[in-house]
Amino acid sequence: MPLPLLLRSLYQNCRHSYTLSNSRASNSSVALFTLLRHFMAAASAEPITPSNTRVGWIGTGVMGQSMCGHLIRAGYKLTVFNRTVSKAQPLLDMGAQLAQSPQAVASQSDVVFSIVGYPSDVRSVLLDSKSGALSGLRPGGVLVDMTTSEPSLAIEIASAAASKGCHSIDAPVSGGDRGAKGGTLAIFTGGDESVVHRLSPLFSLMGKVNYMGSSGKGQFAKLANQITIASAMVGLVEGMVYAQKAGLDVGLYLDAISTGAAGSKSLDLYGHRILKRDFAPGFYVNHFVKDLGICLKECQNMGIALPGLALAQQLYVSLKAHGEGNLGTQSLILVLERLNNVTLKPGAPAAAST
């Protein structure tokens, strides 16, 4: 049996015995348990490869399914959990194993990724004392939360993980469904830089890693990213409405500005989707409203005013009020259309107003 697997087996047996009788454990048993914890931590420092690293994945939605798929195709053994099992089925068809809880995922994994909806979900799947991943993770294991969440929660998770001899990295991503499918996501990481470096074989399959600093800094970077995107989306849809009212062919207009100073990733990803009335979610309005709400909360904590952020958040909240929270963020055009009593039409330009 390979040494890492032998150590895991010894540790599991020792932990079971120690848990059953820790109140009356002999000094030698305690010493053995402690020694094995050190060996497990040391074994976790070896380079990550498909042959020696078991990976867990919690959350197989729009983003998670594609990201997890890259790891499976690279040869990693995956154990997955999703509350709605049908959303995990494509990964099971690729060879992943289904677990019944986040704790069960972690008990069979060396590195556990999570990408779920809200901070409350993150807390539940990672920190719940009975079913959370941390409760099933062995010393030396790593939690990697890729959800856009609260920086304070990332710090709390890192502290809880450290108390168990484990590691935690906050690693939210940007790039939407296309970035997830293409493996071109921007990954913002916070935590121990050496752990982030060791995880690079996994991260590189999903996108480009950007180390931002200590625990929570990955989340702060992602929130700043969301602030930038929010204002960019407002500018994009306002420009499209203006172009149509001015009598321009909006498709030609988008192509014309794409190579100039107004060009942006948002334009590239969503401009022509909007014209096609394709509002399928690469990123849900509901989740964007959550992100922008966290941003506003952090602004209050910092004592700063960002009026563009506040406006964008209100416009997106109006989409939720119309029951459009499960559409993609490009559906912001619907708000501007309602405000101006206009509907964008691809192809035929509208007559200019007089």
TrEMBL record:
Domain 6-phosphogluconate dehydrogenase NADP-binding residue range list: 54-212
Membrane spanning residue stretches: none
Pfam families reported in the protein's UniProt record: NAD_binding_11, NAD_binding_2
Coiled coil: none
Residue stretches making up the 3-hydroxyisobutyrate dehydrogenase-like NAD-binding domain: 216-335
GO molecular function: NAD binding; NADP binding; oxidoreductase activity, acting on the CH-OH group of donors, NAD or NADP as acceptor
Name this protein carries in UniProt: 3-hydroxyisobutyrate dehydrogenase-like 1, mitochondrial
Organism encoding this protein: Acacia crassicarpa (northern wattle)
